[in-house]
Amino acid sequence: MSADAIPSSQAMTAEPSRRDRSLDLVGIVLSIVTLVAALASFFPIYWAIITSIKPDGEVISGSNTLWPNRITFDSYIHIWNNTNIAIWYVNSMVTSLIITAAVIVSSAGCAYALSQLDFPGRRLIYMLILACFMVPMQALIVNHFVLMAQFKLLNTWAGIILPQLIVPVVIIVYKQFFDSVPKEFREAAMMDAAGHFKILFRVYLPMNWGVTAALAIITFIGAWNAFLWPFLAATGEATMTVPVGITQVKDAYGIVYGKLMASAVVAGLPVAIVYLIFQRRVTQAIMLSAGVKG
Amino acid sequence: MADIRLANVSKRFGAVTVLENVSMEIESGEFIVFLGPSGCGKSTLLRMIAGLEAVDGGQIHIGDQRVDHLPPSQRGVAMVFQNYALYPHMTVTQNMSFGLRNIGMPAQEIAQRVADAARILEIEQLMDRRPAQLSGGQRQRVAIGRAIVREPKAFLLDEPLSNLDAGLRVRTRVELAHLHQRLRTTMIFVTHDQIEAMTLADRIVVMNNRKVEQIGTPMDVYSRPASRFVAAFVGSPSMNFLPVAGITDVGGRARVELAGAAAIQTGIPTRELPAGNGLTFGVRPEAVRVAIEGKGMLEGTTDIVERLGDRTLAHVRLADGTVLVAEDAGKSTLQAGMPVSLTVDGTATHLFDVNEAAYHAAA
Asked: Which residues cross the membrane (chain A) (predicted)?
């Protein structure tokens, strides 16, 4: 039987079936389409980078070359010397990190309560959190602005941070994770004299740091890239974040593309670094939240 | 170690009552097994003692203290879960010391207790591993170790052997018995496996349908079951049950007439039996022996022969169609389809009334 099987298998290896050949063809076409899509996505980034290292004259000459005739870092030197980008960076870093930490801690706590504790109104609260998806951030901008103005928090870090702490998707992803943990772990921890905070932070979250890492990364990226609310809440350069600060990069003659692109590259750098380091986690986070967002 | 007393304990889940007025006393150092079919409430009762389920009625005392209002960690008991519930991100040492650290025990004492438990359970070489790096049996030991280090007044074990393969299950069962002999701490063990119950227990609590059917030593439960349910549930193969056609009194003892005109003299006092019909005769397979043809009390035809090595079980169809399981020697020559004659040991017979209450031969 085995003697028969060997030539048969060799024959299969030597001569791919029609089905295998058609699969190969589909694979090649899909690879080409993916490559084109990837290039199309990457092109604006590439264009921003080469524009930022072109001399101003070349940028406005309309030559639109794919590679600079002369490479210069004048735009970077200019934005470093003539704008508050260092301050914007600090503002972005501080607000993004605080938002990330606060969102993770509060959402994990909220999700733990909704998932593990039995209290009146639990379902209603969860429904309200789900309903938050139906209200876009833009619809709340006026309310947020009035509230922050009344609290006298405009042009402060707190004013930028507070309205960005509501991230229902993080609560929902955490709740789904906690729902999937067998209840015996909580009961074992209760027998081990652990309170709810200890159960959450010493047992549940460490069981799968991947979920927290993924959610922290997407929250950080979201907070770093946030434009509309920080744009409204921070009107003075001292409290602007990087995306808002970029709008200030202009001179007496209007928008200077080279310098604008240099600031955009600098602004996107931390997100790009975070993405490159934690690529797998970011993908995981997108998949986790995709199930929620539909 | 402490006595555990349950007084009229009840539990409801919404409109469904899962335990009703359960009372029992467990002596210090006893190995008690809660035995019953799935859904009978045995795990719920254990969880109520542990504090993982609220008590809707009645009281639970451990030692001199009423505990039914206390959180689990303050009851002085330790639990081993069916799936072990070892924290997957912690090493064996961390798993075993987690509870002790939570109560603020000095590090030196924690280290000492963990080392002692590891030595008792022979898991010293596993202490730096995580649960995923352990086999099922090793995990089970670690789960017991986590309970031992707390030096509890009682161990609560919720079907801890059910996830092990058959061979490991038997070995672990023996180890648990050794551990109990060594620690002499009260252990309450939940299982639906009657062999585990019979081999481990000082006393068995047989539960069914929200209530306790019987509390007794393994041999009590086996040889003097309190109800038809206990008689049927305990013992493998199960007890034979035959409808009773009539009872006659012979010297104060009941002579049971079975359908098909066979009659069996029992040791059951006639005066204890209720008036009226509806009695059921019960006898365990080992009390029904294959006899020389024509010399027995019952005649039938062999349906199936099960050879177990040390003994042979014969499923015998009687004239009225009832099937009875009888025992024969390991080297029995019985074959399916052969006519067979059976004798019944009347001193090991039982009668059950319509309410399933049991009547046994006088002790």
From this structure: 25-49, 86-112, 124-145, 157-178, 199-232, 252-278
Closest CA in chain A for residue B83: A184
Q: Can you count the helices (H) and strands (E) in chain A?
A: 17, 2
How many structural domains comprise chain A? 1
Rounded CA-CA distance B330/B307 in Å is 7
Asked if the structure places residue A171 within a domain, the reply is yes
Between helices A257-277 and A85-116, what is the axis angle to 10°?
40
Phi, psi for residue B89 in degrees, rounded to 5: -90, 0
User: How many residues are recorded in chain A?
Assistant: 294
- Residues β-bridged to residue B223: none
Q: How does pLDDT run along chain A (294 residues), one tens digit per residue?
A: 343 444 444 444 455 666 666 678 888 999 999 999 999 999 999 999 999 898 888 877 777 788 888 888 988 898 888 888 889 989 999 999 999 999 999 999 999 999 999 899 999 999 999 998 788 888 889 999 999 999 999 999 999 999 999 889 999 999 999 999 999 999 999 999 999 999 999 999 999 888 898 899 889 989 999 999 999 999 888 899 988 988 877 765 667 788 888 888 988 888 888 888 888 777 777 776 665 543
C-alpha distance from A11 to closest chain B C-alpha (Å)? 43
Distances (CA, A) of B123 to B100, B217, B359: 19, 33, 49
Does residue A94 lie within any of the structural domains?
Answer: yes
Determine contact: A203 vs chain B, CB below 8 A: yes
- Residue A141 belongs to a domain: yes
B94 touches chain A (CB under 8 A): no
A191 touching chain B per CB within 8 A = yes
Type of residue found at A177: F
For strand B253-258 and strand B240-250, is the pairing parallel, antiparallel, or unpaired? antiparallel
CB A248 within 8 A of CB A240: yes
CB contact, 8 Å: A197 with chain B? no
Distance from CA of B142 to the nearest CA of A (A): 13
Angle, CA of B138, B140 and B145, to the nearest 5°: 95
Which token pair is A240?
Answer: 């602007």
Token readout for A165 is: 């702490």
Asked if B136 and B163 count as a contact pair (C-beta separation under 8 A), the reply is: yes
Q: How distant is the Cα of A66 from the closest Cα of chain B, in angstroms?
A: 51
Task: List, in order of start, the domains of chain B with CATH numbers.
Answer: 4-227 (3.40.50.300), 240-360 (2.40.50.140)
Instruction: Establish if A192 touches chain B: CB-CB under 8 angstroms.
Output: yes
CATH number (domain holding residue A264) = 1.10.3720.10
Phi-psi region of B337 (alpha: psi -120 to 50; beta: other; left: phi over 0): left
Quickly tell me which residue has 């009978």 as its tokens.
B40
Rounded Cα–Cα distance for residues B266 and B252 (Å): 10
Residue A72: inside a domain: no
Of B71, B81, B89, the CB nearest to A206: B89
For residue B351, which of B285, B272, B288, B289 has the smallest C-alpha distance?
B272
B52 touches chain A (CB under 8 A): yes
**Nearest-CA residue of chain A relative to B72?**
A191
Contacts of B88 in chain A (CB under 8 A): 207
Contact criterion met (CB below 8 Å) for A262 and A52: yes
Contact between A174 and B75 (Cβ < 8 Å): no
A53 pairs with which residues across the strands?
none
Is any Cβ of chain B less than 8 angstroms from the Cβ of A194? yes
Structural contact between residues B83 and B159, judged by C-beta atoms closer than 8 angstroms = no
Give whole-number Cα distances, A215 to A207, A270, B300, in Å. Answer: 15, 17, 73
pTM of the model: 0.80
Residues spanned by the domain of A263: 86-293
Nearest to A198 among B77, B86, B102 (CB): B102
